[in-house]
Amino acid sequence: MKNTKYDNIVEFQVTGDYALFSDPIMRVGGEKCTYQVPTYEALKGILHSVYWKPTFIWVIDAVRVMNPIQMETKGIRPVKYYGGNDLSYYTYLKDCRYQVRAHFEWNENRPELAADRIENKHHEIAKKMIRKGGRRDIYLGTRECQGYVEPCVFGEEKGAYDDTPELTFGPMYHGITYADEAYSEDTKDKMTVRFWSPVMKNGVISFIPPEQCPQHKTIRNMEMKPFGECLDNFSGLREFSEVR
Predict the structure, then answer these.
(1) When you count CB atoms within 10 A of the terminal residue's CB, does the N or C end of the chain come out lower?
(2) Which residues, other chains included, contact 238 with Cβ-Cβ below 8 Å and sequence gap of 6+?
(3) Are 131 and 75 within 8 A, CB to CB?
(4) Buried b (16+ CB within 10 A) or exposed e, 86-113
């Protein structure tokens, strides 16, 4: 199950007692219910916590569901926007374990960072950060769902759905395209949400890239976050690090 199309592939396992992978529409408030499997955006967020720079974009290739899909509903007392508490029921995935395969591509929207496009450097740092468990805390969908990452070989060990030929999940949120990662004139200077219909085959969901999603909706106009006019900013950061 090895993908040899890219040289900068990373493979890791992420585990957690609970997970909540939901549509952003359900994040506003009230009851929350998880999807049955991780979303592309959630897995990308995990990689951002492991290692990320504006020089490149993480692309999730596939996820392998290792444990049986189980759900548990809990009574939660979330904090209201204007103070006080409320009572809601959240439905979580429980006893989660996934194998993930991904690679990165250069962010063509950031030509000012072209000098930082050193593939082997970023690849080795990413693998090291996976071995270390990530640079920042790992969450499975929401902050209360702590996760843990470690290296693995994608396809090794027995998975719960290895013998299930095909399982469909219907229309699902794929992710958000921010202005920094625009891939077409329709997504340039905009925030766009994407949708697709995943299919799990023998325990593996192979993700389509953002530009191939069949449905997308523009949320609002959005400007790219500035990182400076030239690479002098990055030189300054290096000097600052050395001083510290």
Answers:
(1) C
(2) none
(3) no
(4) eeeebebbbebbbbbbbbbebbebbebb
Q: So what's the pLDDT on residue 228?
A: 56
Per the DSSP assignment, residues forming a β-bridge with 72 are: 92
**Residues whose CB falls within 8 Å of the CB of residue 57, separated by 6 or more in sequence, listed in order:** 104, 105, 106, 107, 181
In angstroms, the CA 234 to CA 231 distance is 5
Whole-number Å distance between alpha carbons of 181 and 54? 9
| Distances from the Cα of 243 to the Cα of 31, 236, 237, angstroms | 49, 11, 10
| pLDDT digit string, tens, across residues 115-125 | 999 999 999 99
pTM: 0.87
In order of 217, 222, 223, 229, the CA distances from 190 in angstroms are 10, 5, 7, 21
- Amino acid making up residue 224: M
Determine phi and psi for 27, rounding to 5 degrees. -90, -10
